[in-house]
Design brief:
With 425 residues, the chain is of the alpha+beta class. α1 runs parallel beside α7, α4 runs parallel beside α7 and α5 packs across α6. 37% of the residues are buried.
């Protein structure tokens, strides 16, 4: 069950800047409450439901970082003093052998060397390891060169993870390295948030499913497939409701049915007030709808509301606007519903190679790519066509060039922020 107030999306007034709008939105939404336990092999991309605390040190004991010989460092000093030369090599008897997964089996004694291998536990008291390449041994004794520092080639117990520390915080979307860390602590399964259930649909008598014949006046539905792919990459459980005809009763009933088994409903287009735009009254018949007029280009009209207990997000109809508003508006809302930590991508400051005029007071997103200049600086090149319906601009670009509200013009050489698409996904 999604936790949200009846008026969580209510807002009236002039166009609102993106950051305050998102802060207000996410502050009013709580995550889904259901959790489940999954095996490590099924945990990739899932949201951790509880802090993972280390039950022991990693590594659990001091161990050798190389193949070689473990010694007491003070034996090297003593041998040098006895020989009358602090820089003289040291000869010690080799009295034991320890491989990974084994123990010496007795207390180590001063004045001896132990043959040791990478990952093997250090004999108690021994604190330094010589690399085998630096030593000469006849099997019974080993000659150790002078000049080594105390503690070299020894990994300390707990230097990776300390017992009792939080190694993975609740809300983290699990990456391969996170799963590896959990495995190193002996966890075969993890408690995670249940996948967010999201239904996606399109409306419009002009839309056709790819693969169908395309009559005059019809277009293929691309937005729905973009949303399904974006939601899947986010880790949601997606239901494709297909294309709904421009019929009020059909849309109303489909929304009501979908809200019974989903946490969120997402659509694109159909949010105007024309005679064939039925999404708005269909949502209002099942709950409430509040239009947020965001100061953003592309994608100013973003509709947010509720259909029964499900969050409703209505995105613009143009393909570029759909992707931009999903990444910058819908994605943070969905992550909040998922119980995930804030994953706002950090922009990369780069040098602009283009001139561009924009309207002050509005956040604007251009499509572009990065190149490396002769002086080594990263430069952003703007895609030559700006239209919100130019889907190829997304395909042929590497990310978004984000221009803040107070900026009125970009000139070549100025610093601008670049958001790579891969950072969102």
């Amino acid at each position: 069950m999604v936790q949200l107030d009846n008026d969580c999306f209510a807002f009236g007034g002039p166009m609102m800047a993106v950051d305050p709008a998102l802060a207000l939105l996410t502050g009013r939404i709580g995550p889904v409450t259901a959790t489940e336990t999954v095996t490590l092999t099924d945990a990739l991309g899932r949201v951790l439901a509880a802090d993972l605390v280390a039950p022991f040190n990693v590594p659990p004991h001091d161990n050798a970082a190389v193949d070689g010989y473990a010694v007491f460092f003070d034996d090297l000093v003593a041998a040098g003093v006895a020989a009358g030369a602090a820089d003289a090599p040291t000869v010690l008897p080799v009295t034991g052998r320890v491989a990974a997964g084994q123990w010496l089996g007795r207390p180590a004694m001063r004045g001896e060397a132990v043959r040791i291998f990478t990952g093997a536990p250090m004999p108690a008291g021994m604190d330094t390891v010589f690399m085998q390449e630096d030593c000469r041994s006849d099997g019974a004794t080993v000659t150790l060169p002078a000049g080594i520092r105390r503690g070299v080639n020894r990994r300390l117990a707990g230097e990776d993870v300390r017992e009792g520390s939080v190694v993975l915080a609740a809300g983290r979307r699990l990456r391969p390295e996170d799963i590896a860390l959990a495995a190193s602590l002996g966890h075969a399964a993890l408690a995670v948030r249940c996948r967010l259930r999201v239904a996606v649909f399109s409306t419009g008598d002009e839309l056709r499913q790819p693969g169908q014949a395309l009559e005059p006046g019809a277009v293929y539905d691309a937005n729905r497939f973009a949303l399904i792919a974006l939601l899947s990459r986010l880790g949601c459980a997606v239901t494709d409701l297909g294309i709904l005809p421009d019929r009020f009763e059909t849309i109303r009933d489909a929304l009501a049915a979908a809200a019974m088994g989903h946490d969120a409903l997402i659509t694109s287009g159909g949010m105007s007030t024309g005679e064939e735009d039925h999404v708005k009254p269909a949502v209002e018949a099942n709950g409430r709808l509040d239009f947020w007029r965001l100061a953003i280009k592309p994608g100013r009209p973003v509709a947010l509301g509720r259909v029964r207990d499900a969050v409703f997000v209505g995105l613009p109809g143009n393909p570029v606007a759909v992707v931009v508003t999903f990444l910058r508006i819908a994605r943070p809302i969905l992550l909040r519903l998922m119980g995930a930590m804030d994953e706002t991508p950090r922009p990369i400051p780069v040098r602009a190679t283009f001139a561009h005029k924009k309207k002050p007071g509005r956040r604007e997103f251009l499509r572009g790519s990065l190149t490396r200049a002769d002086d080594g600086a990263l430069e952003a090149t703007k895609y030559p066509r700006d239209g919100a319906g130019v889907l190829s601009s997304l395909v042929e670009s590497e990310g978004l060039i984000e221009l803040p509200e107070d900026l009125a013009r970009v000139e070549p050489g100025m610093t601008v922020d670049f958001l790579p698409f891969k950072e969102f996904l």
